[in-house]
Amino acid sequence: MKKRVPAYIITGFLGSGKTTVLQNLLTYCKKNNLKPAIVLNEIGETNVEQDLFHNDQVLEMLNGCICCSIQGDFTQELHSFLTSLNEEDVPDFLFIEGTGVANPLEIVDALTDPLLIDDVDLYSIINLIDGSKYLEYHSIFSSSKEVRTVLKSQVTTSSFIILNKVDLITEKMLQKVRKKMTDLKMDDTPIVETSYGDVDIQLLLERKIRTRRTGISKGKCGCTSGHHCEDHSHQDLNHSFQAIKINVANPIDRIQFENWLKRFPDTMVRGKGIVQLTETVGMFQFQYASKQLKLNRMKEATKLDPCIILIGVDLKSKEIEASFNKTFN
Ligand SMILES: Nc1nc2c(ncn2[C@@H]2O[C@H](COP(=O)(O)OP(=O)(O)OP(=O)(O)O)[C@@H](O)[C@H]2O)c(=O)[nH]1
């Protein structure tokens, strides 16, 4: 019988630093000659970050959230992927990056499906928190119910919390975030405070959860993180987050682009994509999170055409596209 692959669910709200931590994990694996496999899940139809993972075994689940619309596909595809491997190709670790609005318990449900329970062994649910946005996202004045529900489900179900982006906040704010999180999380869930997800990888890889081949060791829902599973519900799955894709035919001005992104209300939580800039040649991958725009020149050619992906609640695609065309064309 093949070994069960230790699996880690990496959750956290949009832009909190999941991919950053995943890359730290992959660097660790490379240094230590370990074979990782990765599941990447996006609610949009395109994964503009695919180039970051081009030498690794990657299973992409696009256009839906594993936690709801494509849960069945995920179970089937992951099972087929793992069972198609020869013994020597079986990965040492499986990292599953959720969409940012995923309810981790639903991914746990998928991983503990009878089809997968012999293939994977869930070790931990790692939750990334964007320290710079946490209080705002929890505020009933500046945030929506959808955002608060997703955040809460991610914090309460995690077995390891990374409080990230502490470089962007003051000590006073950090104390408020700590207090708020401590009230919500399970008592035995560790919290590590970081910038750029810089956490001791061995600590991160420690087993925090136990599942049995015959079933789950605690709770009827599949969650093994130690709390009372009857307490949480699996509703609220049809979150109204959506991703909008804008194709970008021409190079755009960097400053204008940044100003355009910053004019969006807070319901537009995350931007990412690939653009060309008027000021210099080449393709740039961009990230927009926590109201910060970051552009990185792409070192290798990409098959993807330039595009902008915006994620949020109640985004009006026609209006956004019109505003883009008016500003840049
Ligand atoms: N200032 C600061 N920026 C960070 C930190 N961690 C990550 N970032 C940046 O935040 C942006 C989003 O980070 P990602 O790792 O892509 O976030 P994510 O959670 O994978 O995003 P989604 O997949 O869209 O939900 C990137 O530009 C990162 O470089 C941090 O600790 N401090």
TrEMBL record:
Q: What domain of life does the native source organism fall in?
A: Bacteria
What InterPro entries does its record include? Answer: CobW-likC_sf, CobW-like_C, CobW/HypB/UreG_nucleotide-bd, P-loop_NTPase, Zinc-reg_GTPase_activator
Keyword set includes Lyase: no
In alphabetical order, the GO MF annotations are:
hydrolase activity; nucleotide binding
The residues that cross the membrane are none
- Which intervals hold domain CobW C-terminal? 241-328
- Family statement: Belongs to the SIMIBI class G3E GTPase family. ZNG1 subfamily.
PANTHER family xref list: COBW-RELATED
Q: Which protein, by its recorded name, is this?
A: GTP-binding protein
